[in-house]
Specification:
The chain is an alpha/beta fold. About 35% of the residues lie in helices and about 20% in strands.
Length: about 200
């Protein structure tokens, strides 16, 4: 079984008008994590950039100019996915797992379209798996006492230790998402995992 945990950071909340600025993920095969990736992305020309969204992510417009071009990031992302799935085999796809998954699904699928690639569905099974909804079932007994149902609050309610300074960085959020998913589905991480390959763009901070 092939699973990819995905988290994105964006310049707003509209996947058609706004753009991606970070794509992070973890790839699991048969419950063993085999690949991590983290790309910082310069928005496409024409993508709307909301100052409030940048503030949440702690990124400036000057920072965006230092990120890799969206076409180069897309090329790397496709090459990475092609290492693990055969896009010409309908039975060979990733299960797409995310927190508030529709958001990440819509932004990533539009990223494919903006790169003139119409075969997003060749890589991922539909529907996506939303960790938020799985957590809602798990935490029904304490939901009334929770201030909100954001990833941070859910992780804390499940007893996961949080580093608040790293929140809203896609790389950290995807690690939290994976931990929450394991908690709510009662999946135990193997004691010994395969050596994990890392594919990170050079950190700018």
């Amino acid at each position: 079984m092939k699973q990819v945990y995905i988290d994105t950071e964006t310049t707003g909340i509209n996947p058609k008008d706004n753009g991606l600025i970070q794509i992070s993920g973890m790839i699991e095969i048969d419950s063993q994590m085999v690949k991590e990736f983290d790309f910082r992305v310069k928005p496409f020309l024409g993508d709307k950039i909301e100052d409030e969204a940048l503030k949440v992510n702690g990124i400036t417009r000057e920072d965006l100019e230092k990120f890799e071009s969206p076409d180069l990031v897309f090329e790397k992302l496709i090459a990475l996915f092609n290492q693990y799935v055969n896009p010409y085999d309908k039975s060979d796809k990733f299960f797409f797992i995310a927190y508030n998954a529709r958001f990440d699904w819509d932004f990533l699928s539009n990223f494919f379209l903006k790169n003139n690639h119409k075969y997003f569905s060749s890589y991922f099974f539909f529907p996506q798996i939303d960790v938020m909804y799985l957590a809602a079932e798990k935490l029904k007994s304490v939901r009334a006492s929770m201030q909100n149902f954001k990833l941070q609050s859910v992780a804390e309610a499940l007893g996961i230790q949080i580093n608040k300074d790293l929140l809203h960085d896609a790389k950290y959020d995807i690690e939290l998402t994976r931990l929450v998913y394991q908690k709510v589905t009662e999946i135990k991480t193997p004691v010994i995992e395969k050596k994990v390959e890392k594919d990170y763009t050079e950190s700018l901070f």
